[in-house]
Amino acid sequence: MFATYLNSLHESMSRRVALVLFGVAILVAVAFNAVVHVRTLADGATTIVVGTQSPAPPVIAVPSVLESDLRATGSLWLLLAIFAAAPLLTATLEKGWLELTFSKGTARWRIFLGRFVASLTLYSMTFVVATLPVALRLWWMTGIGTWQVGVALVIQTFSFAALLAVTALVTLPQKGVALPIIASVAIWLLSPSLAMRQETFYRIFSSHLARGIVDWAYRILPKCSELEDLCVSFIQGGAIASWWPIWSTGVFTLAVLGLTLWLLERKSF
């Protein structure tokens, strides 16, 4: 599985997919560092100026900058990484790749899981490249801890893993990257509407049956929008307000990924 993992990372570089993601991440990092200015006043106090905003003390400005970074790039990385990871998974089932890999002694699920983990790594690395420079700079120049970004990375990776598991499952019955991408993006778009179903679906459906179906859809599907809000609240307060979005999304991911690997082992090529 480790060999497949390394090969998948190398393949993403060869297809220029990873290079594009890293290029965008570097641009984001440069842009945020360019608009954030740390200044020392005559009395020795430190203030932070973001763009044209008024100066603010580091204890207020540092969490605010990190929050803005996450809100501006959180959804962007999820979508870009899905577009980048889908070809890695679908290529595993393409003619030529099948004969080359599945004919070996390694179990199918190990090969597919290796490519799945490589996609997660690709997402995590681009997230780090985009957010770590400004976080380290603010910590170095103000002394305010920015370790919360690491926790935000783990939470956001949970969200991406859930969408990637859907991509992997939809990959099995057909060829091509269009349908897997559409399926995962549809769930991502549906997530905030389900989280606010009292203001969205409840106004459309008045029957208890329809609302019950919507409630179960919310319970089962990943909580992408809530996980992003959880990242922001953790950066602001340093505590996780609710574990429900995390563990429910984790259960969904494990169930869908387990089903995918089981179907892959039983699939006739």
Explain briefly what this protein structure is.
This protein has one domain (about 1-265).
Architecture overview:
- This protein is mainly alpha-helical and 269 residues long.
- The chain contains eleven helices and two strands.
- The chain has helices at 2-14, 17-35, 58-91, 97-101, 108-142, 148-171, 178-195, 201-204, 208-220, 224-237, 244-266; strands spanning 36-40, 46-50.
- A two-stranded antiparallel sheet has the order 1-2.
- Helix 2 runs antiparallel to helix 3 (58-91), helix 3 (58-91) packs parallel to helix 6 and helix 6 packs antiparallel against helix 10.
- The radius of gyration is 21 Å and the shape is globular.
- It starts with a helix and ends with a helix.
- The model has no long low-confidence stretch (mean pLDDT 87).
Q: Give the tally of β-strands.
A: 2
Shape: globular
Strand content: under 5%
- The helix/strand class is mainly alpha
Could you give the order of the helices and strands? HHEEHHHHHHHHH
Mean pLDDT: 87
Task: Specify the helix fraction band.
Answer: over 70%
Give the helix tally.
Answer: 11
Distance between the termini: 20 Å
Overall tally of domains: 1
Unreliable residue runs: none
C-alpha-based Rg, rounded: 21 Å
What about the largest sheet? 2 strands, antiparallel
Strand order of the largest sheet: 1-2
